[in-house]
Amino acid sequence: MGLEDQLQENVMTTKVDAMVGWARKNSLWPMPFGTACCAIELMATLASRFDLARFGAEAIRFSPRQSDLLVVSGRVSIKMMPVLKKIYDQMPEPKWVISMGACASSGGVFNTYTLVQGVDQYIPVDVYIPGCPPRPENVIQALMKIQEKVAQAKAN
Amino acid sequence: MENQEEHQAEGVGRPGRPGRPGSNPEAVTARIRARFGDASVRDGNAVGCESVIAERDALLPFMTFLRDDPELTFDYLADVTAVDRLKLDEAVRFAVVYQLYSYKHNRRFSVSIPVPEADPRIQSVVSVWPGANWLEREVYDMYGIVFEGHPDLRRILMPDDFGSYPLRKDYPLHGKGERDNFVF
Questions:
Q1: How close, in Å, is residue A83 to chain B by CA atoms?
Q2: Structure confidence by residue, pLDDT tens digits, B48-81
Q3: pLDDT reported for residue B16
Q4: Cα separation values, B157 from A72, A114, B161, B166, Å
Q5: B54: which strand partners?
Q6: How far is residue A76's CA from residue A80's CA, in Å, rounded to a whole number?
Q7: Listed range (B40-49, B86-95, B112-121, B128-137) with the worst mean pLDDT
Q8: Which spans in chain A are helix H?
Q9: Architecture of domain B2-171
Q10: Does residue B2 carry a pLDDT above 60?
């Protein structure tokens, strides 16, 4: 004789963490940091053919203060890294980061004096996407990985 | 048409694309020699356009002449760049190269000025072509060549506190640790 038997089908019980996680993962607000060709693929992912709205993540905001998912898509030079760090710091908690493509993840083919060899040296990255540039399917899979992680996060 | 005939009479070719009949490649250098003397210039070897190598001491009068002379009228500075000839067999390490274009005569021209490593200075041509401003800043940023008289000679691509000149041939491709040790 649990609580659910008495309430029957009118009320569903769950944990706060699970409910908040479910709500968050289906309403991600991405902050695009597009500095190269990966940004074009990101735009394609958002557009009608691949339609990131199916995952509740179509509301791109160019203000980090309104976002909870940072998508670093492209090369980041040592002159640009302070900008990226500032954008990351401005995002409210909780926040997640996708490092999209070879350049953001490792410097890619640009093993040169001016390019940061992976943004994870300076900001924490949750999901890496390989590819140069990755196709929209890869971006969608990365977003689904992020959703898994968001669903497991503590609500606090 | 009257202008063209006048040019032919002076020995300067009709308007035409470089390398095409009528462009008369030697005409520009001949005109410069007539004004500055044989010793002031020597022929360069740029591919596809006329070229001259000049001394840096009298750069501004030289460039002003190229811009204002009615038979040359190089009214457009297309590019300023530099060459580091460290591993080439050249007595002087650097050369600053100016790519000029004349709308009036549809003619391109290239000026190369040797700049020694020990004293990497050259006069700024911003007062002749204002478009040289950012171009000279880029050369300063990449090669460390100082343009005297430039109104705003700051780095344009690299961070302000970047200590090296990355397009110099003795600068390593992976840098000197800047990409791992920058501050912010």
A1: 9
A2: 667 788 888 888 999 999 999 888 889 999 999 9
A3: 46
A4: 21, 10, 11, 11
A5: B41
A6: 6
A7: B40-49
A8: 3-7, 16-25, 37-46, 81-90, 101-106, 136-152
A9: 2-Layer Sandwich (3.30)
A10: no
Contact, B106 vs B15, CB < 8 A?
Answer: yes
Closest-CA residue of B relative to A86 is B184
Q: Which of A146, A151, A155, A139 is nearest to A125 (CA)?
A: A146
User: Bridge partners of B112?
Assistant: B53, B97
Say if A78 is an interface residue toward chain B (CB within 8 Å). yes
Is the CB of residue A132 less than 8 Å from the CB of residue A126?
A: no
Assembly ipTM:
0.73
Q: From the list A82, A111, A115, which residue is nearest B184 (CB)?
A: A82
| Helix A37-46 / helix A136-152 crossing angle, nearest 10 deg | 70
Topology of A29-50+60-151 in CATH?
A: Rossmann fold (3.40.50)
Residue A110 near chain B (CB below 8 Å): no
Q: Coil, strand, or helix at residue B4?
A: helix
For chain B, the structural domain boundaries read: 2-171
* B180 vs A contacts (CB less than 8 Å): 117, 121
- Please tell me whether residue B24 adopts helix, strand or coil conformation: coil
